[in-house]
Amino acid sequence: METDDRFKTSPYRRHRNDVEAADSGDYEDEGSSGPFDIYRTKNASVDRLRRWRQAALVLNASRRFRYTLDLKKEEEKTQTIRKIRAHAQVIRAAFLFQEAGKKEKGTPTLATSSAGDYGVDQERLASITRDHDFSALEEFGGVEGLANALKTNVEKGICGDDAELLKRKNAFGSNTYPRKKGRGFWNFVWDACRDTTLIILMVAAAASLGLGIKSEGIKEGWYDGGSIAIAVLIVIIVTAVSDYKQSLQFQNLNEEKQNIHLEVIRGGRRIQVSIYDLVVGDVVPLKIGDQVPADGILISGQSLAIDESSMTGESKIVEKGPKAPFLMSGCKVADGYGTMLVTSVGINTEWGLLMASISEDTGEETPLQVRLNGVATFIGFVGLTVAVFVLIVLMVRYFTGHSRDSAGNVLFKAGKTKFSSAIDGAIKIFTVAVTIVVVAVPEGLPLAVTLTLAYSMRKMMADKALVRRLSACETMGSATTICSDKTGTLTLNQMTVVEAYVGGKKTESPDNGSVLPPKVKSLLIEGIAQNTTGSVFVPEGGGKMEITGSPTEKAILQWGTNIGMNFDAIRRSSSIIHVFPFNSEKKRGGVALKLPDSEVHIHWKGAAELVLASCTKYIDTDDQVVPMDEDKMTLFQRSIEDMAARSLRCVAIAYRSCGMESVPTIDEELAHWEIPDDELVLLAIVGLKDPCRPSVKDAVLLCTKAGVKVRMVTGDNLRTARAIALECGILGSDADATEPNLIEGKVFRALSEVRRQEIADKISVMGRSSPNDKLLLVQALRKEGHVVAVTGDGTNDAPALHEADIGLAMGIQGTEVAKESSDIIILDDNFSSVVKVVRWGRSVYANIQKFIQFQLTVNVAALVINVVAAVSSGDVPLNAVQLLWVNLIMDTLGALALATEPPTDELMHRPPVGRREPLITNIMWRNLLVQALYQVIVLLILNFKGKEILHLENYDIDYANKVKNTLIFNAFVFSQIFNEFNARKPEEINIFKGVTKNLLFMGIVGLTVLLQVIIVMFLGKFAGTVRLSWKLWLVSIAIGFVSWPLAIVGKFIPVPKTPLHEYFMRMWSSIWPGRRTRRGEANSRQEDGVELK
Q: What is the 3-state secondary structure (H, E, C) of 1012-1039?
């Protein structure tokens, strides 16, 4: 078999070159879309990511783009990796050149050096693997000699007690590498200080402070400028604390992602350890999909092939064997299995050097983040326009003598007013305009996504879901279909052999080895023990036997021991010549054994109907090899169908013998030898029971109610898949179990691309599917407009996980390759946890919409009040300090309160959120306009008629104005506090439902009220307020309270189903015929398609 053919199913090879994979894409018209219309950031091009950054209106780029991908650093990281790879390869080439020269001259090689109690030191070990120094390895006597020097048993590993592990770490180092420290708190303070508007305010405050002190003295003159400076400082500190806490959460989650757990052999047992606990001398089993955890040397392997692209940069699959035994940390096992001896760990490996040299950038775009930057940019431009308008109006009024103080005196008289007073007046006007920009530009809006994602990711860990990519967390809320594996996801992954056909008939008691014919039993035990990637460990002092491996392997090994198998004795009785690892395309795995009498036995195990099709004989109850006639073949086929119909996984075990003359003698030919898989002799057909998870039926029903279609994609027999699908509710009844609802992988694969796309939406169950079938299904569904989530655990699932909108890898059974290709890791392999992820995804979107509604209400009200007041009277009721406090409530505290609302059951009673649906829905527009209109009307009435309403005509004019403005400020803040409750439930009447469970929300509301009381009652000079009487406090609270009944009434106002932006687009189209964009048409088509589904 050619190397390219052998690895044609490798995810590495297919991922780069496969025609089907190359056809994938975002299915979006990138050229015609706007800069913020990135509905799928997964695999988005760098140009698209750069476009939206350039289009965004940003006041503080370092803060706004902190959690997005740093494009400059990413380029630097790529260059660093290239340099280190090149450096390592140059060193290796130079060393090999030197060695060749020494051999020619007959120069003796260096003697081995030792490290304490060990026969070799770390420097020597590192040089052997780094330089691929085969001659140095031979000096030690090969891998076994090196293992002896490291005091390791190549079969049983090290003993692994704490004292020995510590000793090895002291001698050779630990499997960690120095990481660049995370950003400290003061870095976040510095970032917050770089906000353009805050810098301008600080400059204005400094100028105002200087002028105030000069004109009024330090005792009274510092208030105006000083209060703004202190307010800005408070905003900076609160912002920095919030950002710092978020960064710590991301750091913790990032460390969790890197903590890989793997199997090692210690004391003869296979145990799970963290990659950080690996030591030099450990013996590590490797199988397809694993990551090589450290530098090492191959002890033994069968068809082992390694993808070294992560180290060399070349997508070449390298075969490993006795002549090429060197393994590099960070590479992936592409095929086969074997065991390795760890020789270098941590910083002593090339991978450790690479990881220590690059900074781990956790930044990443999310679609919501990009879209919110678009919203923030639009609102920002409106706010900036309003601020400039207010600035011009106030400046014109001031310098033309139309602005008056509270006593009615003209503030500026040309030629009479002092220059310093004129400048001070202009600075105050400028400060108000800049503060309007601070409030109007919702800088915190895109950052609210990061806040809610950080909160959700932390909580999702408790729900057994580890988020690897931020965007997946929110995209899951838009998922319209989930393509799930069967084994271990929908089922418990606890397989047992419950039925067996041996000797041509069904055995009454499958675990009773005494009833089996001796020859069949002997061959069965031989095949089970040798044709496996699992192992059986029996403690020397007695104790419970431990079986490791995949669930299927464990079940069959357990059955083998039940019928009398001595695992270690059988393994020693024959030697393995060659292995054909289990292949998801062929659905079988085989092994060729050399017996002591030089006879060769070839054992096969795999999908029952496929292995049976290759059988021409079977052994009967008399231990006689009998030809497989048609009747017997039919009997076995019906037995398989019967077991499959009862949801059993059917596995057939067969063998054949051949002479040594058939086996290649040259190593290179043997490495590519195709083990014969024809004319097999059937030994047994076994049925394995893997019960459905108890909670899976309810989880599938919940998905169906939520508008998310669950599809089963499994490699199992179609009848087994059908039985499980009926049991867990994916198929409603037998009537649903017809094609194309129920389809076989090869049938789907054979269809044309157009036909696949037509029937993809109808498929509920796909049986006997290959990983490529899963990939084709994902592509067809995505082209139909679906947002697709896919579960996977195998290496060959990597392309489908990568192609899907959300790739969900299994944490227990999943390979490292699958996990690296995924977006979220389901830690308990449970489908119910997948449904919880959907719930959290919807919660992210819902929380952001709550925050948008709340923030835009504040924006609209604050802008309108200040603009109307400025234009009409030349003064604004809300000064700079008050607006900064409102901004703090709106941005940081509001985001904390609303963006961290836990998910509710109601989220799963609505359809998925379309990725092209407007962020601000018609319901949100209704709610925010009702509240903003109410606030504007009430507060403008107070602004213009407040003195009369409050009976302040007889008071000092300056004091009366301060009381009126303080009441406006107080009522405005309380309106936002009450409206925060309204924002929790945009569509429900009961806005208090579950409020007491959200302690953070209650705490923030309580803190806001407390701080408001302190500002008004005790910080009058600082905030420009006066103390209010209890009656006016009640008035403020009453004005805020009215927003609750008003919100209830507002929710009865009907809203059109067509989004408001569609009306504007139609108006635009009528004004400018033919200007409707291709993007708009495409979006409408896709929205319509998704809605219809």
A: HHHHHHHCHHHHCCCCCCHHHHHHHHHH
